[in-house]
Design brief:
Blueprint (H helix, E strand, L loop, with lengths): L1 E2 L6 H9 L5 E6 L8 H7 L3 E3 L6 H12 L3 E3 L18 H9 L5 E4 L11 E3 L14 H20 L3
Parallel strand pairs: 1-5, 2-3, 2-4
Antiparallel strand pairs: 5-6
Helix pairs in contact: 3-4, 4-5
Amino acid sequence: MCGNHTTLGDPFYVVCCLGRKRQTHVMAKAEAMKWPVIGFLLKKAGIIGVNRGRSDMAAVKECMRVLRNGEKLLMFPEGTRVREGETSEAHTGAAMLATRTDTMLVPVYISTKKRRFCKTTVVFGQPYHPTFEGRKPSADDYQRIADDLLDRIRALGEQEI
């Protein structure tokens, strides 16, 4: 599952919508895993810390293990929080993981209109398999898949009332 990311609470909104039937793993910046008490709780909750800005093979391998085991993984393809009105580029991690594990991508839109202790709208799009030409996807294929995913997430937001 891949969603837009505007506030620190976005993973919680998605996880709450899904319920507790099966654990949802979430990718988060590795720095968060080092925060006192919070980092300990995040590790216990199955959060996968990733070192941003470089290839973190340990995080990639853990995500691939999660996906191959049929577990749920939530990622934010923009790689960081993006405020309303700001623009960002899609990172290719979700595309790479989906193609290497033959996993479907699920676009998720989390409403940017949030108020504490009030309902927040979370829209799940149609799952789909990313497509590419050839035997293995190229760097251009990964970027095209990532851009398409981000377009699908944003399109879900346009449906918001």
